[in-house]
Amino acid sequence: MEHFINLLIRAVFLENLALAYFLGMCSYLACSKKMETAIGLGLAVVFVQTLTVPLNNILMRGLLDEGALSWLGPTFAEIDLRFLSFILFIAVIAAAVQIVEMAIDRFLPALYTSLGVFLPLIAVNCVILGGSLFMQERDYTLPESIVFGFGSGFGFAIAIVALAAIREKLSYSNVPEGLKGLGITFIVVGLMSMAFMVFSGIQL
Amino acid sequence: MRQLRRLLDRAGEPFQKGGRLERYHPLYEAVDSFFYAPGDTTKTGAHVRDAMDLKRMMILVVVSLVPCVLMALYNTGLQANLVIDPARTDALEGWRHALLQGLGIGYDPSSIFANMAHGALYFLPLYIVTMVVGLTWEVLFAVVRRIEVNEGFFVTGLLYPLILPPDLPLWMAALGISFGVVIAKEVFGGTGMNFVNPALAARAFVFFAYPAQMSGDPVWVAAPTDVRIDGWTAPTPLAEMRLGYGPIETQGLSWWDAFLGFIPGSLGETSALACLVGAVIIIVTGVGSWRTMAAVVVGTIGMAGLFNLIGSETNYWYGMPFWWHMVLGSWAFATVFMVTDPVTSPFTDAGKWVYGIIIGAMIVLIRVVNPAYPESVMLVILFMNVMAPLIDQVFVRANIKRRQARHG
Q1: Which among A168, A179, A201 has CB closest to B187?
Q2: Of B29-33, B80-84, B241-245, B347-351, where does the model show the most confidence?
Q3: CA distance B161 to B73
Q4: With an 8 Å Cβ cutoff, is A35 touching chain B?
Q5: Which chain B positions have a beta carbon within 8 Å of A197's beta carbon?
Q6: Are residues B227 and B100 in the same domain?
Q7: CB contacts < 8 Å between A and B, how many?
Q8: Domain check: are B108 and B194 in the same one?
Q9: What is the model's pTM?
Q10: Which of A167, B10, B57, B334 is deepest in the core (most CB within 10 A)?
């Protein structure tokens, strides 16, 4: 139990995909102008991440790993298909995103229009693929990958919602002409990432 | 005084509209309002709805910092004089010691004057460098962007040297305050428009850029290691705990010493008593929010109590009671002067409670479970600065929803 709490906290804060690894910057910066959009994208990322990381984990252990195909017969025991993981992971992610997109279009049309092009773009969001690849690199078990998937998605959601709140507050600021828009946002993200370093080194 | 007024008026002529130096008017305006109360009050910025203007607010914070500054002078000198080996004072070099020895002040730890003088020789250079570098940036931005220099920097410029270790090289302090003023404040438009505390951002910058000068055992006492009494490393009490010497009670440190501030540490943050005096001034004059301070206290007590209940055989931090947490490190200083910063903390009352409680709990949490940093307070507050707008949003939205439900 303690192990999983530790993993969750690491995934949310310490190894925050947005603010520690700087993954998914395009949607992170573009979708954080308004709170509603940020919350929507954050929820979408949490959902897709919690779904795809464990799914990819099952596939990795059932198909890709060395000896994973031995259930087909003794001749397949030697095969190592790990070089296919990029293609397989992306395919799973694309399918999952399609499902989420259809669901949001059906049930939350307002959110669907405000997310615009970024929802399909989640399919190629580095956060999602990065999560699965971290899972593979660190060789998580299935329960671990569920916790990690949720935690990393949740961490991204917190980061983007916090950024959106700051940007709404900054609309009252007097930013120099040349820095308005993305320029100041980069500075904000840098300061946020410095603040997130408070967690580096935590041991539970 | 009238002569000064006349002098300022005469010198100010080229700075007025149409004058030769019109572009540099903020510079003149700053000098003028430093000596004379200006006829107008703050019109925009952090205090739109309050009759109290920025100048009075900032000067009250400076007043409430005076006890901390005095303690900084005394304690920095005291700690240095305590560890300097009286037999080896000849080996001390540098302009500070040339001055101390040349004037015959000496290194007697029982003499208040010697301690004050020794401490001042460390505090004043840091303070002067901070003010000169910081104000240069402020004036530069004011002139180029045609805004006015305001009093906010007097607070930042005083807070920042107080949270530095005494022996920090001056160029590092200058670099840190440049980062704090420019990146954390001026690019957002100056006082009242930033979202992280510039003094904290400056300190965090120095902390991550030059860890050797900002952490570890020897830096907290202003005396070169080779002239210290043998075997005296003088780490801060928090660092001693980190090394696992044992529970805090067994370390030959009395709670009253820690409360009064006679322990090694950053310049101005060792004395909880001086911070308490500051807290009274800040609360009575209404500059800082008592809610935020009370919430930090609640959070600290709750979290420390929780860890006390859990207990641990190997980690002595678990057993540290909250009254120790409050007197060690920068807890007191940060709670009074950093957490209550009206610009970077939430604006809603409920948000202030949440903000403070999370800060109090996180300070204890990071101290106990994070062996990477002996002290976490400043970084925790920086982190919550980032989260403050979000907390506000949550409560504002909840309020809107509630009122919509009530009134249709």
Answers
A1: A179
A2: B347-351
A3: 12
A4: yes
A5: 204, 208, 379
A6: yes
A7: 91
A8: yes
A9: 0.86
A10: B334
Contact B291, B279 (CB under 8 A): no
Give yes or no: residues B278 and B203 share one domain: no
φ, ψ for residue B228, nearest 5 deg? -80, 155
Contact across the interface for B372 and A200, Cβ inside 8 Å: yes
| Residue with tokens 């000496």, as numbered in its chain | B106
Domain housing B57: 27-37+53-234
One domain for residues B93 and B229: yes
Closest CA in chain B for residue A176: B187
Gap between the Cα atoms of B405 and B408, Å rounded: 5
Task: Please choose, from the candidates A57, A49, A22, the residue with its C-alpha nearest in 3D space to the C-alpha of residue A149.
Answer: A49
For residue A138, with 0-12 CB atoms within 10 Å meaning exposed, 13-18 middle and 19 or more buried, which class applies?
exposed
**Residues B117 and B187 occupy one common structural domain:** yes
Residues in chain B closer than 8 A to A162 (CB atoms): 386-387, 389-390
- B-interface mutation test, from A39, A180, A198, most B Cβ less than 10 A away: A198
Which chain A residues contact residue B190 at CB under 8 A? 174
B145 inside 8 A of chain A by CB:
yes
B45 lies in some domain: no
Q: Please give chain A's pLDDT, 204 residues, in tens.
A: 778 888 888 888 888 899 988 998 888 998 888 888 888 888 888 888 988 999 999 988 888 877 777 777 777 777 788 888 888 888 988 888 888 788 888 988 887 886 666 677 777 788 889 999 999 888 899 999 999 999 999 999 999 999 999 999 888 888 888 888 889 999 999 999 999 888 877 765
**Closest approach of chain A CAs to the CA of B393, in angstroms?**
7
B393:A168 CB<8 A: yes
Which candidate, A41, A44, A20, places its Cα nearest to that of A197?
Answer: A20
Least CB-CB distance to B370: which of A172, A173, A201? A201
Asked whether residue B29 carries a pLDDT value surpassing 80, the answer given is no
Arithmetic mean of pLDDT, B59-65: 88
Contact (CB, 8 A) for B184 and A194? no
**Is B292 found in the same domain as B171?**
no
